[in-house]
Design goal:
about 450 residues; Growth Hormone, Chain: A; mainly alpha
Length: about 450
C-alpha cells in the first residue's frame, strides 16, 4: 500500500531522515546502533563456534579434514540461504521482523548443535544457525547505517562490523574455559543462551527503519513513522512522501531491473571471490595452528589475536573510509589480506611469528569486510539496500562454501600449506579488481 494519505510530499518540506542525519546523534540513535553491535557480536560467536570446537570434535568423532571442512561449509550454505531468503524480507516487510526471525534461527541452531550426536545432526544444526547469521549480515548493519548521522555513517557500520570479532574473542575465551570441563558442547550452549537472551531485548527496543517506512510504505507506515520520530525526537510528518519511481511491489523484482542488473552482477562476482579467500583463512586458521603446534589452547589463542586485530582494523577502516574514501581502503585492505594469507602458510610453525601475524590478519580481514560492505551498501538505493546486500552476500556465501572445502581437499591431497595459502590469496586480488568497478548512488568519496 502506498500511503494512508495522498503522497503529496511532506507538509514541512523537510525529510525527517535529513534532520536525523544532519544533527548530532542522540542517545536513542546510539541505542539502536548499540543493539546492532550486540547482535553482530553474537553472529561472530556463532559462526566460529564450530571452528573453536573443531579440534576437539575431530578427535571425539574421528573426523577427516574433508568431513570437518564439510561441517564448516554447512554453516556457510545456511548463511547463503539466509542472505538470499531473509534480506528481501527486510526490504519488503521491514528490518525489525527480519532481525527477530534471524535471532530465533540462531538460538535454535546453536541449541541443536549442542545436543548433536553425529555428523548428520551437526550438519543440519549448522545449516539452521547459518540461516539466521546470513539474514542478519545484511539487516543489522543496514539498520545501524540508517540511524547514524551523515558524519558517523561509515564509523557506525564499522563498529557493527567490529562487533563480529568481539564475538569471536568471547568464543575463544569460552572455548578455553569450557573445553576441559564441559567439552565442545559447552561452546554451543553458551551461544544458544546469548541469542535467546537478546531476543526479548530486541523485541522491546529495536525500532523499524525510517528508510524502509518512507520508501516501501507498508500498511500503517505514517503512524509507525511518527512513533519512531517521536522516539528519536524528530518533528512528526503529516503526509508520506512520494514513493521512489523504481520502488515496485516486490524487492526481488526491483533489484533485477536493468538499471541495477550490471551492478548486481559485478558485486556478485566480487563478493564470491572475496569470501572464498576470507573464509578459508578464518575457518582453517585455528585448527591448522592447533594441529601444527599440538595445542588446542594455542589455536584458540591465535583466533583471539585475529579477533583483537579485527576490532582495531575494522573500526580504523570505517574511520578512514570517511577520510580517504571507501575505494582506497578497499584496495589497501584486500591487497594486504592476500599478502598475509600467503605469509600464514610460511610461518604457521613459528609461534612468535604467528602471534604477530594474527592481529594483522584480523585487521586485514575485518578492515576489508568494512570497506566491501560499504561498497555494496552504497551501490543500491535505500529501498533495495538490504536486498542488494543480501544478494551480494549470497554470492559471497557461494565463495565461502568452496573456500574451506577447497582448502580441506588440497590439504587432504597432501599439497603443502604454503602452496595452498598462496593459491587462496589470488581470489582476494581478483575481488579487489571487481569491487573497484562498482557504482556509488549515495554522495560521498
Amino acid at each position: 500500500m502506498a500511503s494512508e494519505t495522498p503522497a503529496a510530499g511532506y507538509a514541512s518540506g523537510t525529510d525527517p531522515r535529513t534532520t536525523l542525519r544532519e544533527r548530532p546523534m542522540n542517545l536513542k540513535q546510539y541505542g539502536v546502533i548499540g543493539l546492532c553491535v550486540l547482535i553482530n557480536m553474537i553472529d561472530g560467536y556463532d559462526i566460529l563456534a564450530l571452528a573453536q570446537a573443531g579440534s576437539a570434535l575431530t578427535r571425539d568423532w574421528r573426523l577427516s579434514p574433508a568431513e570437518l571442512g564439510t561441517l564448516l561449509s554447512m554453516n556457510l550454505i545456511g548463511m547463503a540461504v539466509g542472505a538470499l531468503g531473509v534480506s528481501p524480507v527486510a526490504d519488503q516487510w521491514g528490518r525489525r521482523p527480519a532481525i527477530l526471525i534471524c535471532l530465533l534461527f540462531m538460538s535454535a541452531g546453536m541449541a541443536i548443535s549442542a545436543v548433536s550426536d553425529g555428523f548428520t545432526m551437526m550438519a543440519a544444526a549448522r545449516l539452521i544457525t547459518g540461516v539466521g547469521i546470513g539474514g542478519m549480515t545484511s539487516t543489522a548493519g543496514t539498520l545501524a547505517l540508517e540511524y547514524a548521522s551523515q558524519k558517523r555513517r561509515e564509523f557506525a557500520a564499522s563498529t557493527v562490523a567490529a562487533a563480529y570479532p568481539v564475538g569471536t574473542i568471547i568464543g575463544a575465551y569460552v572455548a578455553v574455559a569450557v573445553l576441559d570441563g564441559y567439552g565442545w558442547r559447552g561452546i554451543f550452549w553458551v551461544g544458544a543462551g546469548m541469542s535467546a537472551m537478546l531476543f526479548p531485548i530486541a523485541f522491546l527496543w529495536l525500532p523499524e527503519s525510517l528508510d524502509f517506512l518512507l520508501t516501501r510504505q507498508p500498511r500503517g507506515a505514517l503512524a509507525t513513522t511518527n512513533r519512531v520520530l517521536r522516539r528519536m525526537r524528530v518533528p512528526e510528518i503529516s503526509q508520506l512522501p512520494p514513493r521512489p519511481q523504481d520502488s515496485g511491489s516486490s524487492a526481488l523484482g526491483d533489484v533485477l531491473q536493468p538499471v541495477h542488473r550490471s551492478t548486481f552482477l559485478i558485486l556478485f562476482l566480487a563478493h564470491a571471490l572475496n569470501m572464498f579467500a576470507w573464509y578459508f583463512i578464518i575457518n582453517w586458521g585455528p585448527p591448522l595452528v592447533a594441529q601444527e603446534q599440538l595445542s588446542d589452547e594455542l589455536g584458540a589463542r591465535y583466533s583471539a589475536w585475529v579477533s583483537y586485530g579485527g576490532i582495531v582494523g575494522g573500526m580504523t577502516a570505517g574511520f578512514l573510509c570517511g577520510v580517504i574514501g571507501v575505494k582506497r581502503m578497499m584496495w589497501f585492505t584486500m591487497l594486504a589480506l592476500a599478502v598475509l594469507i600467503t605469509a600464514f602458510g610460511h610461518f604457521v610453525g613459528n609461534v612468535s611469528a604467528l602471534m604477530i601475524l594474527a592481529p594483522l590478519i584480523g585487521a586485514a580481514l575485518f578492515g576489508s569486510a568494512t570497506a566491501n560492505w560499504l561498497t555494496i551498501a552504497y551501490a543500491f538505493p535505500p529501498q533495495l539496500r538490504a536486498t542488494g546486500l543480501g544478494f551480494a552476500t549470497t554470492a559471497g556465501r557461494v565463495g565461502s562454501i568452496f573456500g574451506p572445502l577447497a582448502g580441506g581437499w588440497l590439504l587432504g591431497e597432501g599439497v603443502g600449506l604454503l602452496a595452498v595459502c598462496a593459491a587462496m590469496a589470488v581470489p582476494a586480488v581478483l575481488s579487489a579488481m571487481a569491487f573497484s568497478r562498482a557504482r556509488r548512488i549515495e554522495p560521498g568519496r
